[in-house]
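Help!! Second protein's tokens look totally different from the first
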Amino acid sequence: MAVSGSGGSRADNGYSSQQPRRRKGPSALATAYLVIYNVVMTAGWLVIAVGLVRAYLAKGSYHSLYYSIEKPLKFFQTGALLEEYLLITKYLSGIVPSSVVLTAFQVMSRVFLTWAVTHSVKEVQTEDSVLLFVVAWTITEIIRYSFYTFSLLNHLPYLIKWARYTLFIVLYPMGVSGELLTIYAALPFVRQSGLYSISLPNKYNFSFDYYTFLILVMISYIPIFPQLYFHMLHQRRKVLSHTDEHKKSE
């Protein structure tokens, strides 16, 4: 399990046309399917954003807003697993020049944080750190899925491209901070309850300490966060500089 990050932090999964060499694109049917998928995901994360704003206005406080968007968050974040499947199939067919491994780490870590930490450890759901990563994820995903949708339609507004490759500079550390603080807050409750832990003796002669596993997950952020962050900085320089050069040539 590894860092998921935010702000466009997932490895660029190939919807963009900014590639150094020409590749065979998906068929018309596949494109239509991908457009529908990305439109639905954009709408889903917009629902989450609206839910957060409405809950904040109703309560007059940003505390414990998680409950107002819990169900759609679980649904649409888990829906990213379908995106991972699409990425793998496109990658294997030579359409997408992305790192499946990096993207899989990010997708799975978000799903892990949603279900194995926030859902499973009820006590952390009121932590402000949860709102921190939820807001970062929400802004990120609205931009990202909009980016993919317009890219597939070959009508990508510069503002969306700029947001995709710029806002991650703030949103990524914000999301990672929220994730780490949430896991850290869950540790005492996991240790006390023995959640998901398996102790010896048992018929399988196997033991598992979920508390230790969460600590290892936190440690895994150390090597992976810089790698993903600098990957996006590299993508930003490549994509936006390409756009600027194109504008000058017109």
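Here's the second one for comparison:
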Amino acid sequence: MASASLQFFAFILALFGAFGDITATLLPNWKVNADVGSNIITAITQMQGLWMDCTWYSTGMFSCTLKYSVLSLPVYIQAARTTMVLSCILSAFGICITTVGMKCTKLGGDTDSKSHACFAGGVCFILAGIFGLVPTSWYTREIIASFLDQTIPESSKHEPGGAVYTGFISAGFLLIAGVIFCTSCFKKQQGAWIYPPKQHHFPSTEQESDAGYNLKDYV
């Protein structure tokens, strides 16, 4: 099993990853469109997220509109909603499980139970990282494809916003944390398979006494 300091480092990465996952899911700036007119007063910034669309004016006004209809949304936004929520749930489960299985805590029972808990938490982190990486990659691909499309006017083109970058970084943190937890448990189990505990067999005194008694009968 890995050292307590390495597990603690992985746990901190998982915390940052889970917090970033939740933040990226709720932020409205998955894609940003900055349309600046001839007058600075007419400058606006339009942001689109998974749950709402927001518009910020240079005058200081800020307005948001929630996306109530799910079926009217594009497929990649529906998939991003589902996978990001699953990523947040799995990362929360992973934090709870690894808290029990970490070497520096007094929870979880014996060493084998804590090792299994760490492995389960690591699997949750890896799945959370994958679920967070898929929607951000798909969303970025759609933004780039729309940006390079010559048939779309310049005013309707968007660029990746801060939420996309936050999702990428959070997914990387979760993947690294999951690999550390799973690898530590795998090394421990592999060592137990390669070097099995030696079993000492001591002859039974009763068998020796019985054998001696039988020999005397034949003398």
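Reply: Different proteins will give different token patterns, so don't panic. The two ends are 60 Å apart (CA to CA).
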